[in-house]
Amino acid sequence: MANKHIIVVGGGVMGACVTYYLSLHNNIRVTVIEKTCIACNSSGKAGGFLAYNWSDDTPLGDLSRKSFKLHEELATELDGENKYGYRKVNTYSILYQKESSLRKESNNKKQEKDILTPWIDTSGIRHMEQLGNTSDTAQVHPRLFTETLFETAKQKDNVTLQIGFGVSHVIIDDNEQLKGVELNNGEIIQGDAVVICMGPWSGQLPILKVPIDGQRAHSIVFKPKTSIPPQMLFTTILDGTQTHHPEDGTIYMCGATDNSKLPSSADQIQVESKAIEVLERLRDTLAPELYDNKNEELIAKQACYLPISEDGTAFVGIYPKYNKQVLLAAGHSCWGILQAPATGLMITELLVNGKISCVDKDAVEALDPTDRCC
Ligand SMILES: Cc1cc2nc3c(=O)[nH]c(=O)nc-3n(C[C@H](O)[C@H](O)[C@H](O)COP(=O)(O)OP(=O)(O)OC[C@H]3O[C@@H](n4cnc5c(N)ncnc54)[C@H](O)[C@@H]3O)c2cc1C
């Protein structure tokens, strides 16, 4: 269809990647509606970790592999290294317990120290394993990545961003045809198709039944005293009776999710000081030399909501009603930054060609909203 008008709802990483790939088609016009601001939820507060083959034992193996490669391509095209910190990383898992009675020197200790010094207190490492290297794990700064994609798309004449009012309704006529969307301020925007990229809020529009909710996670970002190598740690820290699983980038550390209810919008998200204190304590245990309280180097204490679907798999494809004019790109849980480029390409292929060819059949079927909504 010539000059199709697509409405993309949500200014997170999914909205950014859908918009970016759609913007490459001159016969498509895109309007992005973001309620709060670009990357205001998890797309601005994630770790930005990318892994090539970590979904291989699931139907989404091809989606992750394809998306990892698209990230590489995008970084080359968009100068990702400078614009959004794209870099290859070494990735480790460690089991950590700082308890001298259990301390056991091993022959590997020196090697561990060589790898992790100067930023980790290696005396508490009980087990360590390399999970990935610079050929199959990487990282982006998620907010800068999301902003760069929107900025690049916006330079095209066919893309408009509208920020400040959210979509309150998808408008469907008596013949089950999409007319457009209505915003919180009453404005109506007409369109030929709408793509729902509302993250954890994707299930909250009247008439659409999308079983997605949110789970809150806290994180801190701090500036290290010394420069440290490009490394990602998945840690299990045995701390008294509790086990914590922070995920630690060079200056980013996040904790486990909690059950706090999803607020009405991203600007209502509450940060719990106790959750931040836990992360700060774990940081001081794991990397006591890394942070100097006197220098006020804590950059962010933050929380955001992961988009979680009821069956644990994201929705990418056509909503099973309304003449194939409503599409979903939501619910990617803890892999949304990795999987966003392939998701954006899948949605674009559907809207442009009517079918998906960029990922294999297993991924298409697993992500298909048919039979999983309503
Ligand atoms: C702590 C943490 C660490 C993570 N680390 C990683 C990682 O290392 N690697 C990885 O691949 N993934 C990671 N993730 C997962 C990733 O962040 C998410 O899967 C991804 O950001 C989801 O993006 P999204 O665009 O679907 O949703 P969001 O980022 O939530 O964006 C949705 C947008 O929709 C807007 N919106 C909501 N309602 C409306 C409305 N009615 N109208 C208009 N706009 C609306 C919101 O304001 C928001 O901006 C992490 C997540 C968390 C929480």
From TrEMBL:
PANTHER family: OXIDOREDUCTASE TDA3-RELATED, SARCOSINE DEHYDROGENASE-RELATED
InterPro entries per the UniProt record, alphabetical: FAD-dep_OxRdtase, FAD/NAD-bd_sf
Protein name: FAD dependent oxidoreductase domain-containing protein
A GO cellular component annotation in the UniProt record: cytoplasm
Organism in which the protein naturally occurs: Circinella minor
Domain FAD dependent oxidoreductase: 6-350
Highest taxon of the lineage: Eukaryota
